[in-house]
């Protein structure tokens, strides 16, 4: 699975309340949720992103409440993956369950900037900053996720529909 897009970089401790503000928690349609993705941290985020773009953040991305609305809104917005130094554990699992690719990296996060164009090979765990012509390696998705194709099926629900396997 290959992703390519512009970077939108954020700091540390980006919580689910700024990813998807609580005032929209009663919305269940992913496309409608996406309209409000990141609006409390960057009110122009949805106006400026393009399909395939990539969110990059520092430590503890997705901390806060366990609501699934946050990763759902990011995926529905067209973000192809998130790269961070670390993720809150519940966000990490929610992202995998809905088929939103995520990678943990340090050096890349420190060196990239908003607007850089990157190519991400999720299967190999390789990120190439095309703007800076620099390549980074990380651990790809854990084998139990890759081998069961949860992310590649588009999430746990799709995987179960396709395979009937739990």
- CATH architecture group name: Alpha-Beta Barrel
Enumerate how many helices there are, as a single number.
8
Radius of gyration: 15 Å
**Assembly state:** single chain
Number of strands: 7
Main structural class: alpha/beta
Helix amount: 25-40%
CATH fold name: Aconitase, domain 4
Per CATH, the class reads Alpha Beta
What order do the helices and strands follow?
EHHHEHEHEHEEEHH
Major beta sheet, strand line-up = 4-3-2-1-5-6-7
Question: What brief labels describe this structure?
Answer:
single chain, 166 residues, alpha/beta, Aconitase, domain 4, seven-stranded mixed sheet, 7 strands, globular
Could you explain how this protein is built, in words?
The chain is an alpha/beta fold. The protein has a single domain, classed as Aconitase, domain 4, CATH 3.20.19. It is built from 8 helices and 7 strands, in the order E-H-H-H-E-H-E-H-E-H-E-E-E-H-H. Helix 4 (69-76) crosses helix 5 (89-98). The longest helix has 10 residues, at 89-98. The model has no long low-confidence stretch (mean pLDDT 90).
Strand-helix topology:
Elements (H helix, E strand, L loop, with lengths): L1 E8 L6 H4 L10 H5 L10 H4 L5 E4 L11 H8 L4 E4 L4 H10 L3 E3 L2 H5 L5 E5 L4 E4 L4 E4 L5 H6 L7 H8 L3
Parallel strand pairs: 1-2, 2-3, 3-4
Antiparallel strand pairs: 1-5, 5-6, 6-7
Helix pairs in contact: 4-5
How would you sum up this structure in a few lines?
With 166 residues, this protein is of the alpha/beta class. It has helices spanning 16-19, 30-34, 45-48, 69-76, 89-98, 107-111, 143-148, 156-163; strands at 2-9, 54-57, 81-84, 102-104, 117-121, 126-129, 134-137.
């Amino acid at each position: 699975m290959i992703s390519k897009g512009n970077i939108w970089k954020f700091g540390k401790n980006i919580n689910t309340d700024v990813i998807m503000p609580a005032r929209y928690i009663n919305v269940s349609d992913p496309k409608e949720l996406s309209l409000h993705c990141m609006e409390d941290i960057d009110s122009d985020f949805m106006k400026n992103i393009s399909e395939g773009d990539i969110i990059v953040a520092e430590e503890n991305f997705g901390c806060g409440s366990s609501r699934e609305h946050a990763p759902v809104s990011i995926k529905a917005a067209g973000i192809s993956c998130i790269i961070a130094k670390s993720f809150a554990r519940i966000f990490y699992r929610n992202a995998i369950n809905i088929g939103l690719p995520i990678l943990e990296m340090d050096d890349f996060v420190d060196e990239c900037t908003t607007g850089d164009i990157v190519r991400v090979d999720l299967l190999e765990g390789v990120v190439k900053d095309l703007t800076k012509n620099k390549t980074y390696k990380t651990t790809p998705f854990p084998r139990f996720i890759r081998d069961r194709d949860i992310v590649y099926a588009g999430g746990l629900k799709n995987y179960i529909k396709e395979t009937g396997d739990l």
